[in-house]
Amino acid sequence: MPDFFKRLSFKKKILSSYILFIIISCFLIGVYFLKSMENAKEESLSYMCQFSEQVSMSTDVIISNVDRIRFMHFIDDTIKYIIRRSMSDKTMAELIDENNYMERALNHMTNMNQYVLRATLINEYREVYSNVQTNNEAYLKKMEAIDSRQDWADKNKVWYTGVYEEEINLIPFELVTSISKVYDMNQEENIGTLYIDLNFSNIRQMLDRLVESRTSRTKLLIFDKNQNVIYDSDGEEQAFWNQMNSAEESAVRHFLETGISKDNELVIYGEKCLVSDIWNQTTGWQIFTWTPLSDIYVSGWNNMVTIISAMLLLLVAAVFLGIYLANQISRPVLILAEAMEQVDQGKVNLLEQKEQDWQDEMGMLFRSYNEMGKRINDSIEKIYIYQINQKQTELKMLQFQINPHFLYNTLNTISSIAALSDIDDIVKIADNLSGMFQYNIKGDDIVPVGKEIQHVKNYLEIQAIRFPGKYQFEYQIAPKIEQQKMLKFLLQPLAENSLQHAFVKMKKINKICITVEEQGEDILFRLCDNGVGMRAKQVEALNLELAQTDTRTLVNHVDKGIGLRNVNARIKNLYGKEYGIQVRSEEGCYTEVRIKIRRIGEEDTF
């Protein structure tokens, strides 16, 4: 494959690169789409489970408000007294009073809950008390038949019937009845049975509100213990099982019984759906939610179609653009390649200038080739003369070279003669200048702080001898700091800068103070003079410029001298952007230049 690619033309390589880029992009988009579909499925399943939990909790809230009716004989001793006595032991007046009392008590309990229509209590003597005056034998027989089929070993058990229709005071209602046993205080003796009729129409309205509050197309069904649909968010309770074929119905019933299905998916009404269900432990109802996978994927498919369409358009545009760009790039390259193939050993053939010359990099390459050809041709003609002149020039350069070591040794000789002649100023100047030359000619860029201080002292002492009585110099060097390492040639340029600019107007005492101290892992140099100072705006602009100096700035591009900007650039290049120079000044009073550098350890390499 690499050999085949190498044999392709430049134009084909560019086109291949464009097409390969688009193919990879399409592949990545496809992977992203599949992943997003899986995420959408997981989010939908999580949403359905949360919705089912919300429905279950809302159902528990309704049922919890009904519990107080079951324990009314614990709250009211009169009720307990009434239901524990047989009617045969009561007078007519007692019967009337007690029936009225029970009716009021049950009415009070039921009116506190909008979902309760009727509460009926049958005591151990099979005597009936109800908040609704009724003698519905069919209702009582139906409840007794359900009661007789139940296992009441669990004394806290509450049985909920399915949804059925019943008339109360000649008004038809959809009811769900809870059946529970009533026990004495010690929960040992069964003293009666309680039937509480819930208005399922109100429960349905509550469920409808929950469904309407959702933005998704998730469908909700609630099954009783016999897998009969008692609620359908589409309002088709009777039609749910009838609209399925036998295979679908069998799979759904198996899922309701076991909660097991592949990837939580079932086929409902001929459409693959995502399903979830939970049991409500209080009522025994099964809350079942399902959403067609097509609804989950529809937005993703629409987005994918849009993306694929855009990618196809991009691919077509990229091919045409690739062809155009390939021609623009390969054509001048071919021309240049042909010209270079025709290069003779003796002479370079120049390219002809065309009317519509390229103005881009290829045009620059053409012009550079012609200029190179001209220079080569000129060089070929003059090579012999050039070689002779070069040799002569090299000889002259050797004659005019000055050896810094020779100058250093000469200064030492001058110092020795001046010492013998007892001329102290010449000795000092020669020694200081000799020390500066010795410091300069050494190749090390990293030096001890003490040597850098000595170098600037040598310079300032020469200035003091040149201008006797005009300057005072003060040095405050922290103990043990002279052995620390630092970058060479930082202080002398700043001291020279102060002498040149700070003392334009000489004072009675012209003073420069150099302070060196440690600050944690850093070293702080302060060079302060009592010269003319600078205006506040000048200081602000200068500090902003110094702070914005990049760590990759070439010192040759900063300025012509070796002043603040040059030293600042060298510091930032070596130590980093957080180090450098900062200036403080007050016009007519002082100028302080602060240099902050990092201590150099043995492990540091430069």
Describe what is shown at a glance.
By secondary structure, the protein is of the alpha+beta class. It is built from 16 helices and 18 strands.
Question: What report would you give on this structure?
Answer:
- This protein is an alpha+beta fold and 606 residues long.
- The protein contains 16 helices and 18 strands.
- The model is unreliable at 384-406 and 557-562 (pLDDT under 50).
- The protein starts with a helix and ends in an 8-residue tail after the last strand.
Mean pLDDT: 79
Shape: elongated
CA(first)-CA(last) distance: 44 Å
H/I helix tally? 16
Q: Into which percent range does the helicity of residues fall?
A: 40-55%
- Fraction in beta strands: 15-25%
Uncertain segments of ≥5 residues (pLDDT<50)?
384-406, 557-562
Largest sheet: 6 strands, antiparallel
> What is the gyration radius calculated from CA atoms?
51 Å
Structural class: alpha+beta
- Strand count: 18
